Amino acid sequence: MIQKPTIDVVIPAFNEQESIVCVLKDMPMDWVREVVVVNNNSVDDTVKRAATNGATVLDEPRQGYGYACLKGIEYLKNKTDQPDIIVFMDADYSDYPEELPYVVHPIVERNMDMVIGSRALGTREDKSMMPQQLFGNWLATRLIRWFYGARFTDLGPFRALKFEKLLELNMQDTTYGWTVEMQVKAAKKKYDFCEVAVSYRERIGVSKITGTVKGTILAGYKIIITIFKYVFKK
Question: Coil, strand or helix: which one is 214?
């Protein structure tokens, strides 16, 4: 692909004051140009701790994972020197930031368009994923395979794309359907993609999605609806 790619990281964050410092301290900055933490309505010390640990902090008051990701994309899109590769990961320290080189490697060395960090292929700590998460991933990836012919094992948050390819996807989802929208659209556009095994640990704090019944139901509903939404859409 490129000899020395420019890599920027986008991290949505909602009340992650305890974990965001750990994420930023473990970030392999010899690989990364800029870390963008998007504050998604936090009422704790997330903003201050992210800023004092070297991150660029943006505010997105509209609640939603997709809204936060779109804010980060907009910021990078408006830079005069856009990144070659964009990486997404969570702020709760469940992902291992130090594994970023493994996630971007297929783009750099094999010219892949998109790489998904698969927790299903990697090593997971006990209790790092709830039963509803495991079932949801299984069902969603099976539906994507049946309807789009794309073989995924996970909808994991740790992922990397060529920035130009991400912009071509014209991402729209503002909440729980963000990750599956990206994978479905990439499949429809016949992107060259692959998965790499990543490690996953029990998050710091309580999940805002799988930690509540409401969040679990809404996330599952949105993921399924998004998969069917693009089946017949050009």
Answer: helix
